[in-house]
Every structure is written in C-alpha cells, then in structure tokens.
Amino acid sequence: MGLISGLLTLPLLPVRGTVALAQRIEEQAYAELYDESAIREGFATLEAARAIGEIDDDELAEAENALVERLMALRGFQEAGDDGRER
Asked: How far apart are CA 31 and CA 85, in angstroms?
C-alpha cells in the first residue's frame, strides 16, 4: 500500500477493525454452538436437572430436541468436510 492510498484509507481503519472483530466473534460463537463436547455436556446437564426435579419431561424433551438438532447439524457439516457457511 502506498503512502497516498494509506493516508486516504486511514479513516476506514475503525470500520475495518469493527468488521474484523465481528467476524472473530461470529467464528467463536459458531465454534461454541457446534462443539460436540458442549452438546454432550448439555445432555448430561439436562438429565441432572430432570433427576432433581428442576425441569419436567416436556421441557426435557424440548431441550433435548434442540441439542439433537445441533448435533445432527454438526455431524452433517463434518461429513460434508466444511462448516456449511458461506464466506
């Protein structure tokens, strides 16, 4: 990048930084959402909550369905060899 173009694009640095930060946050959130160990831990937490009576069977079924959907999406992405997102 030349001196002139560097000076002309200097005001855009905060915007570039914000975009880069947003992309990094998105990647981290996606990694946490589709982490298989976190999904398995979620199943264990739900079962423990049901065992002590914090949630009833209907709430358990609903939460388990959400976890199963996440797990199926994760495994589908793994089989395809990518994370399924467009860049």
From this structure: 12
The token pair at 27 is 């990647």
Which tokens in the block code for residue 15? 């915007």
Spell out the residues 6+ positions from residue 74 whose beta carbon is closer than 8 angstroms to its own.
34, 36, 39
**Separation in Å, CA 44 to CA 18, 39, 40:** 37, 9, 7
DSSP string, 54-68: SS-HHHHHHHHHHHH
Distance CA 73, CA 69 (A): 6
Phi then psi dihedrals of residue 78, to 5 deg: -65, -40
For the segment 31-81, what is each residue's pLDDT rounded down to a tens digit? 888 788 888 999 999 999 999 999 998 999 999 999 999 888 888 866 655
Cα(21)–Cα(51) distance, integer angstroms: 41
